[in-house]
Amino acid sequence: MKMLFRVEFGLCACILFTVTSSVSGRQDPVSEWKSASSRPNVLFLVVDDLRPKLGCYGETNMVTPNIDQLAASSVRFDRAYVQFALCGPSRTSFLTSRRPESTRVFNLYTYWRDVAGNYTTLPQHFKQSGYITQSVGKVFHPGKSSGGDDDYPLSWTNKPYHGDKGGNSGYKNNSEQCPGPDGKLHDYAVCPVNVSQTPHKILEDIDLADFSVDFLKNYRHKYQDQPFFFAVGFHKPHLIWKYPVEYEALYPLTHITLPKDKTKPEGMPPVAWYTCTGLREHQDIMDVNFPFPYGPLPDDMILKIRQAYSASTSYVDAQIGRVLSALDQYGYANNTIITFIGDHGWNLGEHGEWCKQTNFELAVRIPYLVHVPNVTSRFRQRGHNFPFIDALHPKQVQKVSDAGLHLSTDVIVEAVDLYPTISELAGVDVPSRCPLNGYNTAFCTEGSSLVSILKNLTTAAPVQWENIAYSQYPRWSPDPHKGSPSVTIMGYTLRNPEYRYTEWVYYNHTAYTMDWTQLYGRELYVHTTDPAEDNNVAAQSAYQAVVEQLSKQLHQGIENRE
Fold first, then answer.
1. I need a surface site. Which of 9, 40, 101, 347 has the fewest CB within 10 A?
2. In the record, which residues are listed under signal peptide (predicted)?
3. For residue 224, what are the contacts with CB-CB under 8 A and spacing of at least 6?
């Protein structure tokens, strides 16, 4: 597939592009789908802490055959970004299609309906459009940030299912359930287990997949032909890495590599750094030398964590495969839109950094797939769209459905774009652009529908697109050694095809306003020559004009919620 770009420089940063597609003989498959499909179903898949460390994203050492199979039948967005690298704020953002400045959610304890506005969520919109809406697992961030009940009943027809087997004494209790070399149980970050020997002989994501399969199996009997919006959120590879031990065999430690850049970026302002307290608090990390705040961890622990993250990802791939196979087996695959994303990325020791709470590329870039039957894939009979592939049996890994068209694009897109995209594809009302300061507007979007890109990929029709993503993350102090009870600094970052540009500025957490003149740090990474973000060149005179231009663009984009 060949993509041709004509870039329009300036503050709008729009681009006009065309794609030479392998799809032929059809004038406009997207429009054909929309006219032929009456009230299609939606399967909304989201995975916690998942960066694009997948086979379908070119990670040849990763064994993720079920996600790869879905990707082959989807549009794979290679440069997709969340608006906030933390679970609650990110999920609130893409489920309301509002940017964090509009949701005012910067932590895990704030509910947007209390502090910002009574925004109509994506599942709420589908519920109001006559759909059965069901949440399984971590879709909204549970707890205070979704009103204590996953925004039920406003967003969901049925009570969300979180996998309640065992309660606090069961698989959800991660403390001191990890077997150690002394034969005792410990609170470890790296926690491979024999599932048959766990207290309830099940792990959380297995339970969520079990529920999802049963939901699809029994759906038609309970709801007849009423369409569904079915959201499934898996937990791994979120810390702690508790997964079936057999998945480690896919990633021998001798095949795991260390990050190439184990020290913080040259010229990085201290405010950009996160100390990853969530990792440091576990016993296996406390037992090794992990200097505060910049590390690094010892090499053997880095390798163990990278192995655990990979094994956890393959474990979740299997659960996703079970859900996709059930969708196919029970006759829904040919009339179901499927989206798949991570809620943010994760740093795996690159620059000596861990966790997600940063504005670095690895923290905000996510996997992002959009599947539309008979548009991004060829028609297949029931049972032949998503056959389950067991990664633990190597011969099965080759058994991938050939229904896919293998569509992809490196146009920059954002998580807030999902809401209007799914709405347009499903034929329900598409939210219009939010007014500035639209806190009293319940139904609107601060993203853009990706349908024009899908049409471009399947018909080569030109499309204009603002090739920029905006993200942000707060800090409580300019010094990683210190803290404050309230947000006092906000880091705003812009990503375009050439650069990542970030400003860390004073933030008034009660008025929700930034002061661009009170600057704590500035970062500029040249992605065309420094894709790993190893060198901050913001202070170099050769880039002064670039910094001035991107600074204006960043301020305009954040203030106008672009």
1. 9
2. 1-25
3. none
